[in-house]
Specification:
45% of the residues lie in helices and 9% in strands. By secondary structure, the chain is α+β, with helices and mostly antiparallel strands.
């Protein structure tokens, strides 16, 4: 996985954005080795300039407006390294949302043939952490202007702080003022005015946004400092990958964009996974249903009419519900940032998680009791119960918020439901290990 790049909201499908993603980017670029080497050198030369810039932000006690100016200067160096002309800007002609409302956009870059807007470049205050107790504001907190006095102690939000970078005429209003709302406003523009991409520069961070994906919560975050810390030795190609993903050749091409190619490949990969998942669900439902019938007949000696269409449908629906539960939990455990399951908590990870059960599934079972036990069954239903009822936790445990959904409601199951009362009637006790 590329540590300097965050794939928010699956901008690229999870299975496509894997440990080989950097290799995929390089292979799809179609540039010569010499050209790729040039890209790498252009970005690597920024390293010392970035740390000099960071030192100014943290150590020299600059005023907010001076921090903004120094950040603007670093953005110029960054844009130059990425193939843009950083010294040019469009601040003198503000981008109008209405006659009186404008958004300060640094660059508007168009396709030379169609005149369609390829890219809009915005810049905001740096996201370098200055105060250890107060994280820097990001896209959803920063503002270009603020009519109240309630502003961050580190970052002031009124247009006078930007006067060394851009000035807006007094009869015009910066609106929306909050950065994420500006982006949403651009994303909702008429297609003829809407850019293919939006690049937001924030000192140590870059945000790459595609309007349609932004509206469903998907975008990319590039951490420049993380890039400079890991792009050493065998990882020098990461400089090239960074250039290829946000450079001018990619975001402002006269032909097909590399990002478009990567997006298409990601979509195809997701479709293939969907097909595999569909087949996997069908196989899992068959296995669960057959095991349920075996258990009823062989272990409990119960007779029932297998040709009963209603019975068949109820068992199938129960099996589907169990499979959907597992898929939900696998996804929740793979996305700890969602906060659904405490996958980083050792008690949960080692005692309750599907990750733990997946590891145990690889363990050789040497006795008949172990092979025919019900540890997995009881563990899964315990986890299902925690999700439905929640777990308040304490200092030594973990917390899970209740999911009020029919998916985990045992009363909605016709035959495969689980409760202590049902368990005592139908299941032998699990073996002790």
């Amino acid at each position: 996985m590329i540590r300097f790049l965050e794939n928010i909201g699956e901008y690229f499908s999870t299975n496509y954005f894997d440990e080989d993603f950097a290799k995929k980017v390089l292979e799809e670029s179609n540039h010569s080795k010499e050209t790729l080497h040039g890209f790498r050198q252009d970005i690597s030369k920024l390293r010392e300039k970035y740390y000099s810039f960071k030192h100014q932000i943290i150590e020299t006690r600059l005023r907010t407006k001076d921090k903004i100016l120094e950040t603007h200067k670093f953005h110029t160096l960054l844009l130059d390294a990425l193939g843009y002309d950083g010294k040019l800007n469009d601040y003198d002609t503000p981008f109008h949302i209405t006659d009186q409302e404008v958004i300060p956009i640094r660059h508007i870059l168009r396709n030379s043939a169609s005149n369609k807007i390829n890219l809009m470049v915005l810049e905001i205050q740096p996201m370098i952490r200055v105060n250890i107790d107060e994280p820097p504001d990001g896209l959803f907190q920063q503002s270009y202007d603020c009519e109240t006095e309630e502003t961050s102690s580190e970052q002031k939000y009124h247009r006078s702080q930007w006067k060394e970078v851009f000035e807006i005429e007094k009869d015009l209003k910066v609106s929306p003022t909050v950065v994420n709302q500006c982006i949403s406003k651009i994303a909702l523009l008429d297609k003829s005015e809407r850019p293919n991409f939006i690049l937001v520069l924030a000192g140590n961070k870059l945000f790459l946004i595609e309007p349609e994906k932004w509206m469903r919560g998907s975008y990319l975050i590039f951490d420049i400092e993380e890039l400079f810390s890991i792009a050493t030795g065998r990882n020098l190609d990461l400089y090239t990958v960074f250039y290829l993903l946000v450079g001018k050749d990619t975001l402002c091409p006269d032909g097909q964009s590399l990002m478009h190619v990567l997006g298409e490949n990601s979509h195809k990969s997701a479709h293939e996974v969907t097909q595999d998942l569909k087949e996997g669900v069908i196989h899992a439902v068959e296995k669960l249903a057959n095991e349920y019938l075996y258990y009823q007949k062989t272990i409990l000696n119960r007779d029932f009419d297998e040709t009963d269409d209603t019975f068949e449908k109820e068992v199938r629906d129960d099996c589907l519900t169990l499979v959907y539960r597992l898929l939900f939990i696998f996804y929740a455990e793979s996305r700890p940032e969602l906060g659904i399951l405490p996958i980083k908590n050792k008690t949960y990870l080692k005692g309750y998680s599907l990750e733990m059960l997946r590891d145990l599934e690889q363990v050789h079972l040497g006795t008949k009791e172990a092979k025919n036990g019900y540890f997995f069954h009881h563990s899964l239903y315990k986890l299902f119960g925690l999700l439905y009822e929640g777990n308040r936790g304490d200092q030594e445990s973990f917390r899970i918020n209740s999911i009020d959904s029919p998916l985990f409601d045992e009363s909605k199951l016709n035959h495969l439901g689980y409760s202590p009362k049902v368990a005592s009637q139908t299941l032998p006790p699990p073996p002790s290990y």
